[in-house]
Amino acid sequence: MQLTIRVRPRLAAVAALLLVAFIATTARSALAATPLTVAQAIATQDGTSQAVTGYIVGEPVATSTVNRSGFSGDLAIALADTASETGTSRMLYVQLTTQWRSAWGLRTNPSRLGAKVTVTGQLTAYFSHPGLKSPTAITSGTPDPGPTTTTPPPTTTTTTTTTSPTDTYYASALGKSGPALRSSLHSIIRNQTVLTYDQVWDALKDTDQDPANSNNVIEIYSGRSIAKSDHGGGVDQWNREHVWAKSHGDFGTANGPGTDVHHLRPEDVTVNSDRGNLDFDNGGSTVNQCSDCWRDGDSFEPRDAVKGDVARMVFYMAIRYEGDDGWPDLEPNNSVANGTAPAIGKLTVLKAWSAGDPPDAFEKRRNQVIYDTWQHNRNPFVDHPEWVSSIWP
After folding, report:
1. What is the structure's pLDDT at 71?
2. Which DSSP symbol is given to 373?
3. CA-based angle 182:168:67, to the nearest 5?
């Protein structure tokens, strides 16, 4: 009997521990299966992957601006806990990456406004606003969480919103679209410090510095890391590539568009020569010393990793140089035979490149360095890539 009495308490203790573990695991599973409300998602901006259910209430275009009509793009949607919500502080901004845009973007699908959806993705700021990025699933309505029910995370209506420094910079443009947006952006970014062509050498050593080696720069087309000091006109050196070819408008290297570092990049001398003044388009033959670049008789295609960068530099030049300050009125078009005209193509391809290759950390840092240290103006399409489709629909 003494043996029996000693064993039973131990078994009971083990059973109790197993029961506690089972209940905790079940609760966690049930909690994970229950989508958050928008209010909960706003309060849980911790970088975790979560499902959120809400109503599509508009298209975010800035930290505190959401279009509820006249949609300008398919890059983001705003969710709220009610379909009639108009307060942006109670909205969650959801990034639409390429795979979701044609099905869920409001420009293509305006009838989605008011629809109830569940989105799974990373809870992190978007447009400097509580958001959900890199979605992995978007479904209509609320998914069935299964037979297990549990108490959802506590609801809170406390939110914190901040004004992004870029929102202050673009204050007069926010909420606008089309020609009005274009005019406002031109007025903003034309205020800049103009560099000399010699100063461009030093600027590029700063703006295009290799994140992995501070003694090097990254060449735009080839992607090669090369010593900052190894520049000039010799074979395998780097020189200053005009992404908007300087002959397209005949502005040369004079102070102005010819020295605007927003479209000047380091590039291998040979690759720079092979690009020449070609327009941009897809296809052709492999470029020497740039295995992921292609060219033919009338166009050049850069490596995939910088296609969006190239497009946004072209779009910057078109907005910055409108022909009202003594320089040509630059504009992208759908031609690949522009010659010396103040135009460059191919617009439809450049728009696709911009959409398919959104700004990365390198491009964003470059834009900030140019603003902070060199020209004190910004490329608006790095900060707001959705503005491309608003200006060039």
Report:
1. 86
2. I
3. 55
Q: Please write the tens of the pLDDT for every residue from 176-226.
A: 999 999 999 999 999 999 999 999 999 999 999 999 999 999 999 999 999
CB atoms within 10 A of CB 142: 14
* End-to-end Cα, the chain, rounded Å: 87
Q: Which amino acid is at 228?
A: K
The answer to whether 199 and 259 have CB atoms below 8 angstroms apart is yes
Cβ-based neighbours of 81, under 8 Å, separated by 6 or more: 37, 38, 39, 54, 55, 90
DSSP string, 105-139: -TTT-GGGTT-EEEEEEEE--BTTBSEEEEEEEEE
- SS3 state of residue 232: coil
Tell me the three state secondary structure of residue 329. Answer: strand
- Return the sign of the alpha-carbon dihedral for residues 180, 95, 85, 166: negative
Backbone angles phi, psi at 174, to 5 degrees: -60, 135
Q: What is the DSSP letter of 337?
A: -
Tokens coding 70: 């006249």
| Cα–Cα separations (whole angstroms), residue 241 to 46, 220, 223, 246 | 41, 9, 13, 9
Residue keyed to tokens 């568009």: 257
pLDDT value of position 73: 84
- For residue 274, the surrounding DSSP H or E stretch is helix 269-275
Say what the pTM is.
Answer: 0.62
* Segment 136-187, tens digit of pLDDT: 999 998 765 444 444 444 444 434 444 567 889 999 999 999 999 999 999 9
